[in-house]
DNA sequence: GTGCTCATGTAAGGCGTTACATGATTAT
DNA sequence: ATAATCATGTAACGCCTTACATGAGCAC
């Protein structure tokens, strides 16, 4: 409990802000609780950090004076450390929410990566992967829809509900896009027949032309 | 030239595989070239690593015997190091493509994170962020569509084309989802009027109920 | 009493970024 | 001549994960 360095407020990573935001209703939470909250909602659109990271982040936030902590013995109870946001923390996280531009979303879609390098595996393998992805999307869709319904029961969760509804639609779309890709693969297979289309040829030498074709034309940042 | 450790093949990270896959058409590429390829297609669905990381990855791949390199003087030319995949590398990346299950896609959507913590900022601020996101999605949509058209001109890019078409649809959907969210926010505002709905209340104490409401019901992994 | 979940961490290391440095070529 | 781009890196650091360790309560 000490630093209060105002410069640090600006340089926290999004994960730290997320944890601080979870603590922003002025309620005491343990690291375990924080993890549960991320699992409940945030994981659908912003992954979910590991326990070890959450504990480390909480310590960091405490050193910055944005949260305080105390040990809990009353409760049951195993030993657990409870964290609570400070006035400085509340002010910092509010400034973050109001004054910081959002970073561009970042996506690492392994399935699409496989598709892009489909010549290494062939369309059948890709369709297997896509089928699995469809099931994954359906699973997430179901869970997000359920959690969104839970969020309807409490007024204070209104924004979480909106985010979870977005997630429902997102995973529904993810499902459709995968199904569409499977169709596209079928069509491509038919078009190429068993001649040297996608999947059979070693697909050599394409970068020659990339420079000329790509660089000039599009791309206004 | 050296290690050839077969165990290592299984434990490379997706980024390494992506770079190796880029080199899989047996063509000599510099680190700079690799970066350009990622910028051309992969960035739409799997971000784009920094130069420094690409150079580091290439060195690592070389130490593993999956690529070889030589200096290029002929070409123009500044000094540049050209990398080429080895037989071992080709075999390893093919095995990766065929035998490794795809990891679940990972998304870090800062805009949705803001929505989920909307009580810290209010609906007007959120709508600004969403409007910016709409423009971002439109920009990506335009670029992906352009690059997909470029990919149509070369047979060997068939899979890249499919991936880029997917990206077009993805960013179109991203746009729609953001617009829908803006509508939802408007409706929520109207419903709550200027009474203590989203945006005004400090939204206290919600985690009490999370344990009871959430844990039991849904969630089959 | 055995195993499961709750709960809190430490240690090691890989992934990935930012910042910096350098020099050569190309464009103006 | 000057600036911009091409091209290749190094250094430092922060983010994040995996693996491991520990102990306490609870279910059977």
From TrEMBL, chains A, B:
It comes from the Bacteria. Pfam families: PadR. Gene3D superfamilies: Winged helix-like DNA-binding domain superfamily/Winged helix DNA-binding domain (1.10.10.10). Residues 19-93 form the Transcription regulator PadR N-terminal domain. InterPro entries: Tscrpt_reg_PadR_N, WH-like_DNA-bd_sf, WH_DNA-bd_sf. Transmembrane segments: none annotated. This is PadR family transcriptional regulator. It comes from Mycolicibacterium komossense.
């Amino acid at each position: 409990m000490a630093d209060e360095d105002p410069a640090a407020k600006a340089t926290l990573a999004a994960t730290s802000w997320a944890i601080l935001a979870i603590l922003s209703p002025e309620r005491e939470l343990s690291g375990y609780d924080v993890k549960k909250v991320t699992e409940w909602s945030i994981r659908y659109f912003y992954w979910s950090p590991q326990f070890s990271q959450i504990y480390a982040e909480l310590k960091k936030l405490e050193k910055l004076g944005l949260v305080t902590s105390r040990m809990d013995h009353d409760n049951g109870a195993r030993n657990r450390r409870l964290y609570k946001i400070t006035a400085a923390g509340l002010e910092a996280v509010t400034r973050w929410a109001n004054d910081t531009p959002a970073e561009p979303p970042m996506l690492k879609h392994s399935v699409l990566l496989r598709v892009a390098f489909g010549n290494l595996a062939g369309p059948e393998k890709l369709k297997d992967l896509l089928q699995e992805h469809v099931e994954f999307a359906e699973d997430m869709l179901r869970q997000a829809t359920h959690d969104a319904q839970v969020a309807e029961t409490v007024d204070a969760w209104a924004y979480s509900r909106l985010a979870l509804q977005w997630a429902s639609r997102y995973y529904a779309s993810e499902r459709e896009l995968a199904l569409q890709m499977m169709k596209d693969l079928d069509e491509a297979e038919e078009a190429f027949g068993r001649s040297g289309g996608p999947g059979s040829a070693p697909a050599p030498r394409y970068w020659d032309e990339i420079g000329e074709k790509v660089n000039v034309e599009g791309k206004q940042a």
